[in-house]
Task: structure prediction
Amino acid sequence: MKRAEALRPLSREHLGALLTAKRLREATDLDEARSTFLDFWQGDGVRHFRIEEEVLLPTWAVHAEVDRDGVARMLDEHLAIRREALRFEAGQTNLEEAQALGQLLHDHVRFEERQLFPKVEGALDDSSLARLAVAIEKAEKDPS
Result:
């Protein structure tokens, strides 16, 4: 299925998350796993989650009925990944936890791509998708 233009920036970032997830799942060295994840997290992850939470979800809610269970899962997984990021930054993880984070990150991205994003695309009309595209583009450029 071809992704709506509005969600393509987020889908492109998901590719990087999947590569990070694969490296974490296959990690044999904790320091390398920590570096891999923190490079992803500080480079794209934090901003990506913020855009999904502060732009995508509210725009969806303004223009259509949201999938409450899907949104709850997304936010629950965001919280779990954010928690693990804090633990990684504090050096409070082990190799098995890094590998488990890789699986969580993989499953999270697959859920968004295969279930949540298609629901957003199906719920929003062309005009709403266009407004969403503009909002995501603006948020992508925001340095904060």
Notes: The chain has a mean pLDDT of 95. Residues 5-141 form one domain. The longest helix spans residues 30-63.
